[in-house]
Amino acid sequence: MSFAVLQFAPPEKRIGVDVDRAKPASGLNVWVHGLILALLLLAAIPCSAATYTANSCSQSDVQAAINLTSDGDTVIIPACSATNWSSGITISGKGIDITGSGTPNTGAGTFGAGTPTTSLVMTGTAPLFKFTNLTTANSIAKVELLNISTTVVTPTIMPGPVAFVGICTTTPPYCPSVRADNLTFASGEWQASLDGGLVAIDNVFGVVDHCSGSESATGSPTFLVQLNYDAWQGVGTYGDNSFASPDTFGTAQEFYMENNDVAGIRLSEDDVSPGNNIGGGRWVCRFNIVTNMEGDGMCAAHGTAWTGRGRGMRQVESYYNTVSGSSCDGLGNVLSGTGYFLSNTFTGAGCNFMVELDIARFVMSASPWNNCDGTQPWDQYPWSSTTACLDQPGSGAGALYTNQNPPTLNSAPSTTCVVSTWICWPNPVLDPVYEAGEVSPNNAPGIMVPSDGTSTRVLANRDYYAQVSDVAQTSQTSPFNGTTGTGYGTLANRPTTCTTGVGYWATDQGTWNTYNSQKGILYYCSSTNTWSVKYTPYTYPHPLDSGSGAISLSPTSENFGSLNVGTPSSPVTFTLTNGSSTTATAITPSVTGGNTGDFAITNSGAGSCAAAGGSLSASASCTFTVTFTPGAAGARATTLSVSYSGGDGASPQTAPLSGAGISTSTPAPNPRMLLAGQNGAKGLVNAR
Question: Could you count the other beta carbons within 10 Å of the beta carbon of residue 71?
Fold first, then answer.
């Protein structure tokens, strides 16, 4: 760990300490006053990230190492054979990296876990590691490179071996970020013991990548990740605000599962939350290998009214997954909200269908939502066989409900939702499901809509646009002619005419995949014979994958400490590194939100991001500086945002900035400077 060394100048040269000339202080008093000032300064200076290695794999030794950490630090658990843990560890309010030993898999070219040499055994039912109270000011919380097994033989492990709970806000980047990677879950042990997911998240963004596990495909399913956003953007609970907010397809504002290699394990579910409540999940399954797939729902979840007050899944993206099995019913589903299903491939005996769209409330009837049967005030009125049900597939953003159970409209919180008034239908916008390029050996139907009451309400070419064929386009008119459904193939073969709403997945477009040629941009017919971009996937591999070839900003956060109002800090250098394979252009650092006037950016000179016209070639880096000058007393904060075009497609890169202003008639020393004496220097030296 980095510690600043303080030495003190003679009394008459001390800075920021009043000396009463009429009553000279003793040398001891001067020294004590100086020591107090130095300690205060030291407390205000952020130290660099530290790494701690636990003495052993025991829970107590790992806990002891974690107790030493601050936000941004790393704890290494040494290599060990199976070590029993009867209880887990909760880490509250700080983002640290907990990593085992061994060799990880990273980046797009590998699937599943590497070779962890640290092995932990759960003999209890609580998570081995649970992060709570994470905020956007924290560093990325990580759990990595572990073999995890269990001796539990009843379904009592909840929410799972690894869990993350965040606190979202109404300002970017909205939720904290986490990563779980290179975790090997012992084969055949979790189906009987797990009542949740192998990883469980609530109100965090990030990725689960390069994980491995194998369970029986028959019987009760095992889930890789349980995902919820019960308080989307820090508003409400039960997932209500997720359903009251626009979709976030193709952005960092979802949770990602990629480059995992699992057998008999489904990737996603939303029944269990490590936080307050379930509801409002948004996630992406991409570039995973799933073998021994049976039943349905490789990348899917339950809908509203499945388990109680919590809402169902809000949105899902599923693309370029490779799946195999002997008894597949359906590859994915949407029981509430919306989704995009693109270029997934199933091999083996084939599926009965690729995607099921079903209104959950024709299957389950948990209170307060109950069945969709014309007796509930949150369904469309007047009731008929064609009127819409709350949260049915193809639903987008609608009105916000209160946190109550049963709910009321946020716009009329004191008015009870009853059938006689019919004011509680949220009137959501259409947000159709799109599907294309889904391939199976038996040419399975793309989208199936059951006749349980759903088929008269969830309609083709309004609520969903199914693939016309699992064969790619051979010309501008075949097999997709632009009148109904969705086609796929090269952009050159996209039809020249189109009917409003239809889609086309252009598989030779996009720069979001920085690894190989598996591409795609979804176009839709925005008006008759007019094609517009509907959706571009988020950069792949995910930027949190350290071997991903992504653009990165360092440091990822900065606390400037406390300064007198109007006193500038020393400039802090930020470095933008282009780890992608393409040039990034139009690089523009700025500050947004909060106290923007207190944080000044200098972006000029050799090596700066403004040099070379704001372009940054692959493998290159550029810099700029930020100076903090508090404009008022108290906490001051903003978000540093670096936007760019090209590169990894993940613009912008962001970092929280913070500091504090001190109101005093006596100027205090700059806390980013230290009194000199080190290494023979005179005067002031930079603490960094």
Answer: 18
- Nearest-angstrom CA–CA distance, 73 and 78: 16
Q: How far apart are CA 174 and CA 203, in angstroms?
A: 9
pLDDT at res. 11 = 33
Quote the domain boundaries for residue 27. Answer: 11-45+675-686
Same-domain check for residues 682 and 619: no
Residues 679, 667 within the same domain: no
Evaluate whether residue 603 is within a structural domain. Answer: yes
Torsion of CA 143, 149, 152, 154, to 10 degrees: 80
Judgement on whether residues 585 and 636 belong to the same structural domain of the protein: yes
214-252 pLDDT, tens digit per residue, is 998 788 889 999 999 999 999 999 999 999 999 999 999
Indicate the helix (H) or strand (E) that contains 182. Answer: strand 177-185
Q: Let me know: does 466 contact 447? Beta carbons within 8 Å.
A: yes
What is d(CA 301, CA 313) in angstroms, rounded to the nearest whole number?
A: 6
* Within-domain flag for 148: no
377 within domain boundaries: no
Mean pLDDT of 258-265: 96
Report residue 214 as tokens.
């194998």
For residue 407, cis peptide bond before it (omega within 30 degrees of 0): no
**Could you tell me if 586 and 613 lie in one domain?**
yes
Same domain, 602 and 681: no
DSSP label at residue 167? -
pTM over 0.85: no
Q: Does residue 625 share a domain with residue 680? A: no
CATH code at position 573: 2.60.40.10
Q: Are residues 636 and 682 in the same domain?
A: no
- Encode pLDDT of 166-225 as tens digits: 999 999 999 999 999 999 999 999 999 999 999 999 999 999 999 999 998 788 889 999
What values do phi and psi take at 284, rounded to 5?
A: -135, 130
Per-residue pLDDT of 651-680, as tens digits, reads 888 888 999 999 876 454 554 433 333 333
d(CA 58, CA 468): 56
Number of structural domains the chain divides into: 2
Q: Does 679 lie in the same domain as 567?
A: no
Tens-digit pLDDT profile for residues 370-426: 999 999 999 999 999 999 999 999 999 999 999 999 999 999 999 999 888 788 999
